[in-house]
TrEMBL record:
InterPro entries: Hybrid_Histidine_Kinase (IPR053159). The lineage of its organism: unclassified sequences, metagenomes, ecological metagenomes. This is Uncharacterized protein.
Amino acid sequence: MIGKLVSLLPQSRIFLCGTLREEELDPEGQLQKIINDLSGKSYFDSIKLSRLSSAGLGELLTSKLNRAETPPNLVTYIHKGTSGNPFFALEVLKFLLEKGIIVLDGKKLKIDSEGLNSILIPDRLEKIWMENLERYDESIQNFLSVSALAGRGFDLEIIKFLSGYSENKIFEVLFLLLKDQVLIQSQKRKNE
């Protein structure tokens, strides 16, 4: 599919932006072939982003936590577990907040050092996301599984049928998942 989209780039006004972890790129794979074919074309640009240093990551975390300073042990821990990948580091930060290892208490940042030393950072974002979803009860996890079958958007009647939930239960679950930003509400297009 991406190959088809890329073939449209020269004669269209499409802006296509993608990200990848270089270490996960198969040198013999389709994506590498597409990148090689596009290299040198006027409509293609590749920007390699460096990983953050420990100091740079500290600044990012301090900004995200809205604090004067992030404790060095937390910066070191997250940097070690993410190799300075900023996107991964922010997901790990959310993960630690969800697990209660880090607690924002007014102006104070409390860190459960014992918990921090005992928890392992998952090696992939998908594992962090899955662990974050484990905090929900079985009915919400079931709702998410059913919703995943529907794709990016879903029909209330289909979800009711597949889940067996009442409209009230569905709206209750939706409210919670929207509040926690697990789901994102899209705006309807005018022609819908």
